[in-house]
Amino acid sequence: MNDGRTIPQLGIGVFQVPPAETARVVRDALEVGYRHIDTAEMYGNERGVGEAIRDSGIAREELFVTSKLNNGFHRPDEARRAFDQTLAGLGTDHVDLFLIHWPLPTRYDGDFVSTWETLTEFQRDGRARSIGVSNFQVEHLRRLADETGVVPAVNQVEAHPYFQNQAVREANRAAGILTEAWAPIAKGRVVEDPVIAKVAADVGRTPAQVTLRWHLQRGDIVFPKTTHVERMQENFAVFDFELDDAQMQAITGLDEGPTARTGPDPETFDFLG
Ligand SMILES: NC(=O)c1ccc[n+]([C@@H]2O[C@H](COP(=O)([O-])OP(=O)(O)OC[C@H]3O[C@@H](n4cnc5c(N)ncnc54)[C@H](OP(=O)(O)O)[C@@H]3O)[C@@H](O)[C@H]2O)c1
């Protein structure tokens, strides 16, 4: 990352993992070999993540844990309280990466800049080793750079074969920001795709594996979500084969643009739950 720290390029995400199941899911993932976990205050399952980390006996320095500031807490004092809650929930004294979950440009009088400045405090005091943003559009990144001079380490955005989010990926790259691709397998849609099935058959892998491999070769960071241990193993086995240029291009050719978003448009999303 642009702050000199490193991040595992593959992890596991726990969006929509029920709180009561989260400790089991993360324990299984750690057992499979995952060392990077992506959670958020909004997911309501930071406690389960923390429980699994403690139970695992794995040294904290070997793990990379990301969480995110919830939408209702962008004002600086609320962000400070929310971050305390995140650390208390996880039961750790630091996170490896803390993100503003959504820019909410139609809320808080359009001010996500003071929220970003508050995250820089958490980095200075060592409780967030790295800081970044999520769902930020090109214009939002420009404002952070112009008004604070502090460039996020990552921008976590929706990206998969059907919605590749190319303008944001390019802005990230130009600014030295790593792209984290959320919904990397388009929430399972890739499993039904004939083009991806052909690439998968040609390399003797599954559709999820070749899609994750496509992301990795493009340089993006991914953390597919699954509650099933067999799928955790499948999604983890993506470092012992490669896609050639034609196979990469076949998947890149599937882009349908913003109509293929699986989630909300960051320009208008304003949910404060
Ligand atoms: N920053 C944001 O706003 C934001 C938004 C959304 C997601 N995220 C992050 O990104 C992570 C991943 O995104 P996502 O969960 O939305 O979507 P995803 O990882 O693209 O897809 C998850 C879905 O695919 C299924 N699946 C997983 N592995 C599979 C495999 N090998 N074969 C077939 N199906 C498989 C899962 O089912 P089972 O669980 O039943 O196996 C689940 O239904 C999240 O967990 C979260 O950490 C961030």
Strand order of the largest sheet: 1-2-3-4-5-6-7-8
Poorly predicted runs: none
Provide the succession of SSEs.
EHEHEHEHEHEHEHHEHH
How would you name the oligomeric state of the polypeptide chains in this document?
Answer: single chain
CA-CA gap between termini: 30 Å
Overall pLDDT confidence: 98
Shape: globular
Major sheet characteristics = 8 strands, parallel
**Structural class by SSE content:** alpha/beta
If you compute it from the alpha carbons, what radius of gyration comes out, rounded to the nearest whole angstrom? 18 Å
User: Beta-strand percentage?
Assistant: 5-15%
Task: Describe the 3D structure.
There is one protein chain. This protein is α/β, with parallel strands linked by helices. It contains ten helices and eight strands. The protein has helices at 19-32, 46-56, 76-90, 113-124, 138-148, 166-175, 194-203, 207-218, 229-236, 245-252; strands spanning 12-13, 36-38, 64-69, 95-100, 128-134, 154-158, 178-182, 221-222. The chain has an eight-stranded parallel sheet. Strand 1 (12-13), helix 1 and strand 2 form a beta-alpha-beta unit. Helix 1 (19-32) runs parallel beside helix 2 (46-56), helix 1 packs across helix 9 and helix 7 (194-203) crosses helix 8 (207-218). The protein binds NADP nicotinamide-adenine-dinucleotide phosphate (NAP). Residues 13-15, 38, 101, 134-135, 156, 182-188, 191, 208, 223-228, 231, 234-235, 263 line the site of NADP nicotinamide-adenine-dinucleotide phosphate (NAP).
